[in-house]
Amino acid sequence: MTRHIAYAAGARSDYGIVRPYLKNLSQAEGVDLEILVTGSLLSREFGHAVNRIEEDGLPVGCRIDIDVDPAGSEAVLHSMALAMDGFGRHFASHLYDLLILLGDRYEMLSVATAAAMSRIPILHLHGGEATFANADEFIRHSITKMSLFHFTATEAYRQRIIQLGESPDRVFYLGALGAENALHFDEVKVDTRLRQLTETPYLLVLFHPETLTGDDPKEQTAALLEALEEIDVPPVFLGTNADAGGGIIRRMIRDFTDEKTGARYFENLAPDAYHYLLKHALCLVGNSSSGLIEAPSLETVTVNIGHRQDGRVRGSSVIDVPCKKEGIVSAVRRVISGGEAVAFENPYYRPEAARNYTETTLRLLDRLQTEPLAKVFYDIPMP
Questions:
Q1: pLDDT, tens digit, for every residue of 55-72?
Q2: Domain 186-337 bears CATH identifier 3.40.50.300
Q3: What is the pTM of this model?
Q4: Which fold has domain 3-175+350-367?
């Protein structure tokens, strides 16, 4: 019997994280896998990264354009409405045995809602986490409540999902795929021009908006760029995400790169190229979750700026600083000086994560043959 699985992908980072896992599923006996593509993956402005999926030979089941515009909350709500309508129509004629969703992006909340209303079972990855400064916080927990099964990156996150009323036998602590993926990039696939970048020191910079703090993305980006002006190491920037305020950050960074000697900008990189640059960078500067989850595996220090990752588990190789020029300059110079010993333990790493994700998913497909889709709220005994 063939089981039909779908993975909904809305951003380059989301796809990069699950890529080995999806390849494993696509090769499993009796599994028909489709990738449902939406969000910034279909946007020319964000590099049209759907090409990465096609290059990997994974089947694209649908493309739902949601008119991504990171100008502000109104534009984001418009995109969410388009996603809800587009996926609702798709699910009306494509009833999957399982839909896999990752994380906390706004377009995934619309996808989850459409799937849940269509009685499609959802497996949620990276639930239970906390990011207090962003709308991701409540989006992630909302997706959790619409999902039947859960794979978490740490045991603490597993416990939080159970606290949300999810049955313990449906919540699995398997580690973070990204923490393992980072160790297995293929240097042969990295473009020669990118490899040449690593011949001299550089900072890798990845900066996104904070969507709940009320802090001005223009002022925050200005503080980051002023700090980089004072550091005598060229920055290599990667494109920001499609959250509200991201357009402002992107424009300011592009203008900075055009004027700053030695600075480079890449809107999109394949996972192998990204991990290659991350491994060889002096440090990762910014506020991406990659700095907490992937950088420690590659023994790269992270200078984590501001509040975007507040609430997430982190190792000691992550240096937290406020989004102020002085703090950023001081932290980066500490890393460059190399005078301090750094422990690179990674709380997100578990061996064989991709294999365990795959095998557990296949077991869950068997369980779905007999388990009801309706959930009972799991009450934790109170003292």
A1: 999 999 999 999 988 767
A2: no
A3: 0.94
A4: Rossmann fold (3.40.50)
